[in-house]
Structure formats: structure tokens, C-alpha cells
């Protein structure tokens, strides 16, 4: 059965006229305008709206026959582009996808077809021929996802028996002489200028060997005195040589209805008018003859077709996803990235942005420093930012901490870590921010009051260890010295890059901690995890490390490689403890000149970025103030160990210092105890006075020696 | 003022001349004024059938970025997959009430082919900073989806692509349209003076008049698929002898 019909189809195709359907073509501006209309005008109004498209008969071969809708489609009385024909359509924009799915397409088409049929019967279509090329557009705009569902329909009335071809299509230049073609072109242009337009959709034609005459379609009765040979012209958007485009379809119905009884055969000129490389031609227009089917005056509305097939060739709607170009969040992301890429454009072509953008940053402290560090990280396009803080926002905070507002202080104040995350997402929805409202246990702040406090401290330590493991860079931005101890130890043990910023009243220090080389246990343990000699391996690793630190003498402050650099605690000869007493300037907290946190916070991030740009990262040799005149090691310049700033003098210096083998945080003996004993060791540190760490590292001994030396010095002086 | 720069007045005059010729050649350029200002730009739209070179960036970019963002169904396997996920379930449901078996035998079969049709929009805007014209453009599919920078790159002819990518200062980039404030692609103008100089110098030596915009456009246009009919220059040369007395204003003259 199926094969029968297909065979019949092919043999009939030789005789029956077939039309090239319209392909819908939408410009990006159309969707933008529809979005605006939906949001501002239509809102929930689903009633049909009038819109306007156009088609063109000047395309080069190979392009689909299009009906185009631009952003101006909603301005029905607006101008049509030069040499294009307008087409008027009805827009049905549904409120829901469900309504889009369930709306009765068949009756939409029949309704539109009926209107065309009525216009043909009443003669209105003869006066306003654009009725013949009406269209329907069904849309649903999902403005949350910026998905647009749409389905076009180009209603065409059909003859039940089809249209028989009497004479096969041929190219105009095979039918017309050059002289006739020139005359045709001239008279068409003449009719256009007479009607003050640049395109005429349908017209009548009479010609002899020497002359060509043309008249508007509505002049049929006066123009065509001899109905034996009737030639109609149609402005034809199709480029196929064997087929006319869609606009002819309804015209033939109009002709059959009005003059079918008088006319048997119609000659059709598919008028195509293109300009290629500056030269115009209409020679490729197509001419053929068809037998005009009969339509009785009393006949009902003919069957209609016209829903557009989707790109797969099936009857169905289309969907276009415009989130990339319309979703404000996506736009923000791409313009942030674009802005950064501009740096590479000319200033720093070798800048590796991906390295920066993909870095996961852990910010310990969400106060003045934390807020400023976070904002600068966002400026660099860093997406992954995690805050740890246990404080609530107080009334004094918002003026100095740019992620908070007055409102955040009300009702006891929001948690800083959480509020900071909310604000980052508001500033830039593309950020992947996370907040942890937790305390960091500190040396000299006992946790052994009860079993509950002890296990809470253990959980906090575990959480901090987990967070440090999951991030690439740890920023120490707290307001006390002792709270930096635990993350310094954990990060040193896990070989994570640490950037530390601390403020005095008008001084600051921004520094990177030395990044220890992977320990033997870390490199070996992967291979021999269950080896019983594991502990001996780690102890042997500490021997060369301490040997190395004791070697340098002459190169004390120049060319120190990253793994030999000191940490925040290396310059101290006292262990961290309860810092209620004042210490050196950079250990004081909270009271500082207001600009200082912004300067230090920004420098901390810029230092991180410079380190990331160095091929050796955290192992990069420390640049010092003396290197300011030398060739910089990265495309962004120097990679210092420390930046110490003095606001009173508006001056920065770049010192570098070695790791101290008796450091209370990063010395091998401390790391060794932490790695072997874990929380047991840590809790001893939290619960004891600072002498515990000083005894462990040998600082106590050092103090005694120093005192002895001082006495010796004194006696020396006395002797003079 | 350097002889290879174009001031704003000359820009407008060159544009007027180009428009006259475009009208004669039916080339489709129009002048779009910005309401309430003296400023404006030349605009032309064109359709291009682009064969997508699947071996380069395009596909990689598509698969790397959120695969949901592209739905055009006839370019690349990723996107076909996407269509298979998104559209058909809807399509199946919706198509139900259309009697497909009521076959329309009046439709001819149209093959889509392997190429994709893109709608281009070109703007010529004057840049005060560079004292030269700048070519802005954007492109979208027939569905109305704008092309990303990566897709635009992949639609550039491979020969040009290599050439452009090896000279980072003369390349396609995304910028805000200076008059419309919408995202557009542009060909950066920093090299304009460099390649215009020899042309203008030669013209001066031979006492020829040159429409700066036309000459410049014939260099930069083809890079992004904008062809300039030879007819423009033929016409110009025919007209040239009678225009030797034309004030400098009309044609960009080197003696100014």
C-alpha cells in the first residue's frame, strides 16, 4: 500500500506543480524584542498579536526560501527593507509550555485559512494582496531559562486534485529574448516607482516579441481583454529552478476562484531579481504554464496546510536556547572573563588566566582583610572562594568591611561567613562561594574544660584540615596572631600555599609562607603505604631539611628558594599564646588606619597571582627590594617573600627570610609531632602555656643561651 | 594630521559616496543615524551559507562549555545530541493534532545540505581614537541565536584564520558597539593605518582619488565574509577623470 502511493507520487510529480515552502528566519533582535514585549506589554495577555515579516526574491542559489522576522517585527506599520515584500502574521504567545503544547494547531490553521478564503471571496485579497502571504507564529518564551519554543505556519489553500503542469518550468532567458528581458525589467521598475514601492508581490503581464506590458493584479478585467493567454507574475523568493515559492500558492486559488471559469491555462512568471557583484539580473526567473483548476463559486473553504517542519524534517516545533546571549548571569560571567582577557590582549600576552581563575581560595577570616581579599579575588575572576569565620557582624563593621551593610548588623548580627557568601553571589552570581561559621582552636586557649569542648575542638580541627586539603591557596586574614598557628601547621604539612596578611596601626605585612618540599613520607607513602618503616622515613626526611637550613650564610637574604622561606612565626622567638598583651606592631589587632586593610588585602591577592604566574609557583625564589631593577621572573613582575608596608612613610620594602629551624609552627619537629600524633599533639598545644612549644622546638634553650650572651656582652662592656 | 588618517568629516563624505554607489549597485548599504546626535553608521545585512569546519575550535568549544547552550541542529554531533534530548519529546506531543498523513503533495523536497545559513549584520563606525573606520559585525543562526566568538572564528576561512591569529593586534574581538551599546564583534583598527599607508601613498603618486572607506573595506571585509563588488572601483575609475576638480571633501584626498 505504502509503496503504491509513493510510486503514484513520483509519476504524478511530473505533472503536478510543487512549491518550495518558506523556512522561518529569525534575527536575534526578534527574541530580545519579544522578551521586552512579554515583560512590559503582553505580560499574561495571550490574545493574538499582529506582527510583520518580509521575504526577498534576490537570494543567490543555494539559500533557503525564507520569511524573515527582525526586531522590528512588532512594529506592524514600520518600513519593509528595500526590494522586499512584507508579510503580515499573527503571533500567539502562550504563557506556559503546556498551553503551547495543547493549543489546537489545526484549528489555528483553519481559522487563518478561512480568513484568507473569505478575503478571496469578498475581493479584499485583490485589494490587499499581502493577505495571500499571511503567517502564524506560535511561541512560548521561557524567560527563566531563556528557552524560546516556536512554530511557524504559512497557511496555503489546496486544490484537492493538485495543479497540473502544462508546460515545464524553464529559465526566463530561454523563453524571452534579451530585448524582452530588458523591457520587462524596465517596466517592472516603472510600475514600482509609480506605486512608490520597491517590490510588487503580484502583477499581470502581456508581451509580444517587441513589447512588454505590465499591470497590477487588480486591473485584471481592464488589462486582460484576451483570456486565451494569461500571464501572471509573482515576486518569487525561491531559488530552485524547477519550483516556485510559497506566495504563488494562494494566488492560484484566488485566480481559480475569480477567473477559473473563463481561463483554462495560466502562464506564471516567477520573478526573481538579484544583484551579484554589482550587476543585476532577472534572466534566471522561471516561467511555466499550469492548468487552472476549477473552483465553484459556492465551494466551501478548501483544505489548508502550512505548519513548518522542524530541522529533523518532522512536524514539530523548534526550540532555541539563548541563555548564552540573554541570561544576565551568563552575560556577567562572559564579560568578567572578557575584561580579564583584555589584559592579555596587549599588556601581558603571556598571562595564564586559567591558572588564576581556577584557583580555589580558602579565606580564614571574613573581616576587613577577608572582605577586601574576596573583592580583589573576584576582580581576578576567581570563582571558588570559601570563608571561615566565627564572628557576627557588628555595628562598627560595615564601614570598613565592604561586604556588609547596616541591615546585616540588626538582630544580633548575621554570621560573617554566611553574609559574605550571600553578598558575593549578589555581586557576581557566577561565583562559587561557601561559608563556614566555625572557630579555629588556638595555642594558649584551652579546649579541655569539658568533654564537649574537647570534641568540638577536635571536630573543628578535622573540618579545618578538610578545608585546607580541598583548596589550593590558604589566606590567613584573622585578627589575632595565635589563630594563625593551627592553619600554618596544617597547610605546611599539606604543602599548601599560604598567603598571610597582618595589620598594625599604620604598618602591615603581606607574606607567603615557605612551601616545604614534598616530604619523603609523602612521596614514598604512596608506594609503601603500609610499610612499618614509615615513621623512620619521615624522621630521616627531617634531617636533611634541618641540615639545609643551617647551611646558608652568605646568601642569607638573597636568592632564597621558595622551599627555604620562613613562615609568619619563623621570625619570632616566642611561641604564640594568649595575646591580650601588646606585642610588636603587626601583632596588634583592629586598631589600624582604615586604608591599610584595603592595601594589604589587595597586595595579598596580587602576590598570590604573581606566585601562580611563576613557573615554579610556591617554590619560586624570593624577589627582594634589590631585584626591583632586574629582569622580573614573571610576566607580572616580582615574586617577593614579604611585603612590609609603612603607611606613615608611604613606603614598602620586600624583605626575605629563611625558615627558622626552631620555628614554633613550621619547624620539622613541630610538623613531625603533628603528623605523628595529630589531635593529641594539638590539644597539648592548645591547653598548655607557650613554654610547651618553646621547649619542644628548643627556643627555651635559645633564650637561655641568649641571656648568657647578653651577660657576657655586659661584662665585656664593663671591662672597657 | 598624518596623511593616512581619516577625520570625521571625511569619514561622513566617504560614507555618502559609498552609499551613492551602493544604491546604484543595489549592494544594500544604508546609513543609520543615532537619534538626537549627528552620529551614525553604515549598515548592511547579508546571508552566508557557511560550511562548518568541524575539525577546529567550534566543536571543542561547544563540548567544553555548557552543552545546553547550543541548539542549532545541523552543526556537529554535540548539537544533534542536544536536540535529541530537548525538542523531540515536545515535538511528539505537539504534533499529535496535526494530520501528517493528510499529506501535502504540493511541497517539493528541500535538502538542508551540510552547510549552515548565517545572518550577518555589518556596521562601519568611525573611531575617534584611531582616526579610522572600524568594522563591527554580529551573526546569528536562522533561529536567532547569536554566534559566540569561537563560532565566529570557526566561520572565518582557514587561510584568513591563520593569518589573523598570528597577528594578535589585527584580529577579531568582542566589544561593545560604541553607538548601540550592544555586544558586537570587531576587527581591531590598530593596523589600519599601517596597511592603508602604501595604498594612499601610491594613489597620491599617481594623482588618483581614493575613497578611503572603500579601499579599507576591500581589505578588511573579506576576512569576515563581506565581499565588496569590484564594480565599486570600476565605477570610481570611470568617474575619476571628471572628478579631478572635486573638492577634497568628496573623495579622501591626500593633500589635505
Automatic annotation (TrEMBL), chain A:
Belongs to the ATG7 family. Keywords: Autophagy, Biological rhythms, Coiled coil, Cytoplasm, Protein transport, Transport, Ubl conjugation pathway. Residues 17-326 form the Ubiquitin-like modifier-activating enzyme Atg7 N-terminal domain. This is Ubiquitin-like modifier-activating enzyme ATG7. Its main location: cytoplasm. Residues 447-474 form a coiled coil. GO terms for biological process: autophagosome assembly; autophagy of mitochondrion; cellular response to nitrogen starvation; piecemeal microautophagy of the nucleus; positive regulation of catabolic process; protein modification by small protein conjugation; protein transport; regulation of apoptotic process. Residues 527-553 are annotated as: Disordered. InterPro entries: Atg7, Atg7_N, Atg7_N_1, Atg7_N_2, ThiF/MoeB/HesA, ThiF_NAD_FAD-bd, Ubiquitin-activating_enz. GO terms for molecular function: Atg12 activating enzyme activity; Atg8 activating enzyme activity. It comes from Scomber scombrus (Atlantic mackerel). Residues 343-617 form the THIF-type NAD/FAD binding fold domain. SUPFAM superfamilies: Activating enzymes of the ubiquitin-like proteins (SSF69572). It holds the Pfam family ThiF. Homodimer. One of its GO terms (cellular component) is phagophore assembly site. Residues 527-550 have a biased composition (Low complexity). E1-like activating enzyme involved in the 2 ubiquitin-like systems required for cytoplasm to vacuole transport (Cvt) and autophagy. Activates ATG12 for its conjugation with ATG5 as well as the ATG8 family proteins for their conjugation with phosphatidylethanolamine. Both systems are needed for the ATG8 association to Cvt vesicles and autophagosomes membranes. Required for autophagic death induced by caspase-8 inhibition. The active site is at 589 (glycyl thioester intermediate).
TrEMBL record, chain B:
GO terms for cellular component: cytosol. The keyword Transferase applies. One of its GO terms (molecular function) is Atg12 conjugating enzyme activity. GO terms for biological process: autophagosome assembly; autophagy of mitochondrion; protein modification by small protein conjugation. The keyword Lipid metabolism does not apply. Keywords: Autophagy, Transferase, Ubl conjugation pathway. Belongs to the ATG10 family. PANTHER family: UBIQUITIN-LIKE-CONJUGATING ENZYME ATG10. This is Ubiquitin-like-conjugating enzyme ATG10. It comes from Scomber scombrus.
Amino acid at each position: 500500500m505504502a509503496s503504491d502511493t509513493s510510486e503514484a507520487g513520483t509519476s504524478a510529480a511530473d505533472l503536478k506543480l510543487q512549491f518550495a515552502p518558506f523556512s522561518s528566519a529569525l534575527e536575534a533582535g526578534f527574541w530580545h524584542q519579544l522578551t521586552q514585549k512579554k515583560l512590559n506589554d503582553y505580560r499574561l495577555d495571550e490574545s493574538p498579536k499582529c506582527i510583520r515579516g518580509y521575504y526577498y526574491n534576490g537570494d543567490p542559489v543555494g539559500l533557503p526560501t525564507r520569511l524573515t522576522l527582525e526586531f522590528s517585527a512588532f512594529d506592524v506599520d514600520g518600513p519593509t527593507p528595500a526590494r522586499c515584500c512584507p508579510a503580515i502574521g499573527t503571533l500567539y504567545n502562550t504563557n506556559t509550555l503546556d498551553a503551547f503544547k495543547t493549543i489546537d494547531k489545526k484549528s489555528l490553521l483553519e481559522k487563518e485559512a478561512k480568513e484568507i478564503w473569505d478575503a478571496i471571496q469578498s475581493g479584499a485579497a485583490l485589494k490587499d494582496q499581502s493577505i495571500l502571504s499571511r503567517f502564524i507564529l506560535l511561541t512560548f518564551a521561557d524567560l527563566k531559562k531563556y528557552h524560546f519554543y516556536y512554530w511557524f505556519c504559512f497557511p496555503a489553500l489546496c486544490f484537492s486534485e493538485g495543479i497540473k503542469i502544462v508546460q515545464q518550468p524553464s529559465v526566463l532567458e530561454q523563453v524571452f529574448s534579451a530585448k524582452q528581458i530588458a523591457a520587462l525589467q524596465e517596466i517592472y521598475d516603472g510600475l514600482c516607482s509609480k506605486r512608490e514601492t520597491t517590490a510588487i508581490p503580484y502583477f499581470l503581464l502581456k508581451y509580444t516579441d517587441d513589447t512588454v506590458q505590465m499591470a497590477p493584479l487588480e486591473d485584471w478585467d481592464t488589462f486582460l481583454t484576451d483570456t486565451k493567454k494569461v500571464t501572471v507574475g509573482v515576486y518569487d523568493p525561491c531559488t530552485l529552478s524547477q519550483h516556485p515559492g510559497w506566495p504563488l500558492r494562494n494566488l492560484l486559488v484566488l485566480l481559480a476562484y475569480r477567473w477559473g471559469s473563463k481561463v483554462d491555462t495560466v502562464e506564471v512568471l516567477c520573478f526573481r531579481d538579484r544583484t551579484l557583484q554589482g550587476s543585476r539580473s532577472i534572466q534566471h526567473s522561471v516561467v511555466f504554464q499550469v492548468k487552472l483548476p476549477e473552483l465553484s463559486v459556492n465551494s466551501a473553504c478548501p483544505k489548508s496546510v502550512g505548519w513548518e517542519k522542524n530541522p529533523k524534517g518532522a512536524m514539530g516545533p523548534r526550540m532555541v536556547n539563548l541563555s548564552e546571549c540573554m541570561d544576565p548571569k551568563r552575560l556577567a560571567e562572559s564579560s568578567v572573563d572578557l575584561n580579564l582577557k583584555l589584559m592579555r590582549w596587549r599588556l601581558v600576552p603571556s598571562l595564564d588566566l586559567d591558572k588564576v581563575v581556577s584557583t580555589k581560595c580558602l579565606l580564614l577570616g571574613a573581616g576587613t582583610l577577608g572582605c577586601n581579599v574576596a573583592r580583589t579575588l573576584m576582580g581576578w575572576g576567581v570563582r571558588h572562594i570559601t570563608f571561615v569565620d566565627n564572628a557576627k557582624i557588628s555595628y562598627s563593621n560595615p564601614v570598613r568591611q565592604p561586604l556588609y551593610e547596616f541591615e546585616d548588623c540588626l538582630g544580633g548580627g548575621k554570621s560573617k561567613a554566611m553574609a559574605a557568601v550571600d553578598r558575593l553571589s549578589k555581586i557576581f552570581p557566577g561565583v562559587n562561594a561557601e561559608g563556614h561559621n566555625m572557630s579555629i582552636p588556638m595555642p594558649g586557649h584551652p579546649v579541655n574544660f569539658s568533654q564537649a569542648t574537647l570534641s568540638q575542638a577536635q571536630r573543628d580541627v578535622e573540618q579545618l584540615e578538610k578545608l585546607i586539603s580541598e583548596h589550593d591557596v590558604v589566606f590567613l586574614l584573622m585578627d589575632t596572631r595565635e589563630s594563625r598557628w593551627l592553619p600554618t601547621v596544617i597547610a605546611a604539612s599539606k604543602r599548601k600555599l599560604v598567603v598571610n596578611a597582618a595589620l598594625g596601626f599604620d604598618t602591615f605585612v603581606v607574606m607567603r609562607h615557605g612551601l616545604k618540599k614534598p616530604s619523603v613520607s609523602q612521596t614514598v607513602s604512596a608506594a609503601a603505604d603500609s610499610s612499618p618503616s614509615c615513621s623512620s622515613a619521615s624522621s630521616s626526611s627531617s634531617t636533611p631539611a634541618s641540615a639545609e637550613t643551617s647551611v646558608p650564610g652568605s646568601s642569607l637574604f638573597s636568592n632564597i628558594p621558595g622551599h627555604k622561606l620562613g613562615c609568619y612565626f619563623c621570625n619570632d622567638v616566642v611561641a604564640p599564646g594568649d595575646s591580650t598583651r601588646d606585642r610588636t606592631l603587626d601583632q596588634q589587632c583592629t586598631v589600624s588606619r582604615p586604608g591599610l586593610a584595603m592595601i594589604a588585602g589587595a597586595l595579598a591577592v596580587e602576590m598570590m597571582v604573581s606566585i601562580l604566574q611563576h613557573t615554579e609557583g610556591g617554590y619560586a625564589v624570593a624577589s627582594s627590594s634589590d631585584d626591583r631593577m632586574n629582569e622580573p621572573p614573571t610576566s607580572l613582575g616580582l615574586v617577593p617573600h614579604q611585603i612590609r608596608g609603612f603607611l606613615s612613610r608611604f613606603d614598602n620594602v620586600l624583605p626575605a627570610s629563611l625558615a627558622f629551624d626552631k620555628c614554633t609552627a613550621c619547624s620539622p619537629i613541630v610538623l613531625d609531632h603533628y603528623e605523628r600524633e595529630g589531635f593529641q599533639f594539638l590539644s597539648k598545644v592548645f591547653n598548655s602555656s607557650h613554654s610547651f612549644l618553646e621547649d619542644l622546638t628548643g627556643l627555651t634553650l635559645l633564650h637561655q643561651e641568649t641571656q648568657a650572651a647578653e651577660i657576657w656582652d655586659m661584662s665585656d662592656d664593663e671591662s672597657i | 594630521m598624518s596623511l593616512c588618517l581619516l577625520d570625521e568629516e571625511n569619514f561622513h563624505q566617504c560614507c555618502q559616496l559609498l552609499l551613492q554607489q551602493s544604491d546604484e549597485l543595489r549592494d544594500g548599504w544604508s546609513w543609520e543615524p543615532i537619534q538626537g546626535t549627528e552620529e551614525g553608521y553604515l549598515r548592511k545585512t547579508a546571508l552566508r551559507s557557511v560550511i562548518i569546519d568541524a575539525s577546529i575550535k567550534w566543536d571543542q568549544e561547544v563540548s567544553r562549555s555548557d552543552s545546553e547552550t547550543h541548539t542549532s541542529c545541523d552543526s556537529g554531533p554535540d548539537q544533534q545530541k542536544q536536540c535529541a534530548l530537548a525538542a523531540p519529546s515536545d515535538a511528539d506531543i505537539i504534533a499529535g493534532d496535526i494530520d501528517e498523513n493528510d499529506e501535502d503533495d504540493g511541497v517539493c523536497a528541500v535538502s538542508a545540505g551540510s552547510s549552515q545559513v548565517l545572518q550577518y549584520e555589518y556596521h562601519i563606525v568611525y573611531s575617534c581614537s584611531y582616526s579610522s573606520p572600524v568594522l563591527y559585525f554580529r551573526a546569528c543562526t536562522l533561529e536567532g541565536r547569536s554566534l559566540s566568538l569561537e563560532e565566529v572564528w570557526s566561520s572565518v576561512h582557514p587561510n584568513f584564520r591563520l593569518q589573523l591569529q598570528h597577528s594578535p593586534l589585527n584580529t577579531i574581538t568582542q566589544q561593545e558597539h560604541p553607538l548601540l551599546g550592544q555586544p558586537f564583534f570587531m576587527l581591531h583598527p590598530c593596523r589600519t593605518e599601517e596597511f592603508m599607508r602604501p595604498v594612499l601613498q601610491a594613489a597620491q603618486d599617481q594623482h588618483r582619488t581614493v575613497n578611503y572607506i572603500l579601499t579599507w573595506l576591500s581589505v578588511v571585509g573579506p576576512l569576515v565574509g563581506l565581499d565588496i563588488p569590484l564594480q565599486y572601483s570600476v565605477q570610481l575609475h570611470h568617474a575619476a577623470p571628471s572628478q579631478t576638480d572635486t573638492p577634497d571633501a568628496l573623495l579622501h584626498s591626500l593633500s589635505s
